[in-house]
């Protein structure tokens, strides 16, 4: 198994769910559930990266290692890149970005994502599952990815891709798209190159940072996980769903 670390970027602000990382699920802060998923994986270290003292204090209470970062970051990817520098990790160090709102992410999928970088052929690795429905195909909140025959990403979009010229072909088009999951793995050198580049026009248009990586010519390897990850938490309804999954 490839050697890797998990970094969990966490910020307090959330427009839809204020204080989201510290909201309780079954008696624990959501962030603690995410941290536990990380420690259940084969990662050699699990670090919570934040700029907020409230999150740092809560994380230290449940025994997590915390790295304080600046408050200027626009994304978790940028925050993790700072962690790479603060920890003085070399360019070859493999880091898994485990998002702080994924309390039900199976540890096996964390390992799978990191393992996709083992052969050295990919710059970034991620996971994506078959779309659950035509409604998800049309939902702009469900990010779709199209891959080539070698399972490398061709394009990510909030739109229904690929476009079916005939209405009767929509089901077949849906079968060609995959539902992208937020987990990613990369080497620190790739992260440093990524954050040094300005957001691309495609990224700004779709609000998907994976498009910056593709614009830079980076190879994003995509694998289908053996089980679909649980719900990510953005709303009160998601909190309730996660609580049911974590019983």
What does this structure look like?
Helix content is 34%, strand content 22%. Strands 1, 4, 5, 6, 7, 8, 9, 10 and 11 form a 9-stranded mixed sheet that branches. The chain has a two-stranded antiparallel ribbon with strand order 2-3. The protein is of the alpha/beta class and 247 residues long. α3 packs across α7. The chain has a single domain, classed as Spore Coat Polysaccharide Biosynthesis Protein SpsA, Chain A. It is built from 10 helices and 11 strands.
What is the third-level CATH name, the topology?
Answer: Spore Coat Polysaccharide Biosynthesis Protein SpsA, Chain A
Listing every helix as H and every strand as E from the N terminus to the C terminus, the arrangement reads: EEEHEHEHEHEHEEHEHHHEH
CATH superfamily: Spore Coat Polysaccharide Biosynthesis Protein SpsA, Chain A
Q: Quick one: overall form?
A: globular
Roughly how much helix do the residues carry, as a percent range?
25-40%
């Amino acid at each position: 198994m490839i050697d890797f670390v998990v970094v969990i970027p966490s910020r307090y602000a959330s427009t839809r769910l204020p204080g989201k990382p510290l909201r309780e699920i079954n008696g624990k802060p959501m962030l603690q559930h995410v941290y536990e998923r990380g420690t259940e994986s084969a990662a050699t270290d699990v670090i919570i990266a934040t700029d907020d003292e409230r999150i740092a204090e809560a994380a230290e209470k449940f025994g997590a290692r915390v790295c304080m970062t600046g408050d200027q970051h626009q994304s978790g990817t940028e925050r993790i890149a700072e962690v790479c520098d603060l920890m003085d990790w070399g360019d070859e160090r493999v880091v898994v970005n485990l998002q702080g709102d994924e309390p039900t992410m199976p540890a096996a999928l964390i390992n799978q994502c990191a393992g996709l970088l083992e052969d050295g052929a990919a710059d970034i690795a991620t996971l994506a599952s078959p779309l659950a429905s035509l409604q998800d195909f049309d939902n702009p909140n469900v990010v779709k990815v199209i891959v080539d025959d070698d399972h490398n990403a061709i394009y990510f979009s909030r739109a229904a891709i690929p476009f079916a010229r005939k209405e009767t072909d929509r089901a077949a088009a849906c079968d060609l798209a995959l539902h992208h999951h937020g987990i990613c793995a990369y080497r620190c050198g790739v992260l440093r190159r990524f954050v040094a580049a300005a957001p691309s026009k495609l990224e700004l248009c779709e609000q998907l940072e994976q498009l910056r990586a593709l614009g830079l010519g980076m190879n994003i390897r995509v694998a289908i996980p053996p089980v679909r990850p649980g719900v990510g938490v953005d709303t009160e309804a998601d909190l309730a769903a996660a609580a049911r999954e974590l019983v």
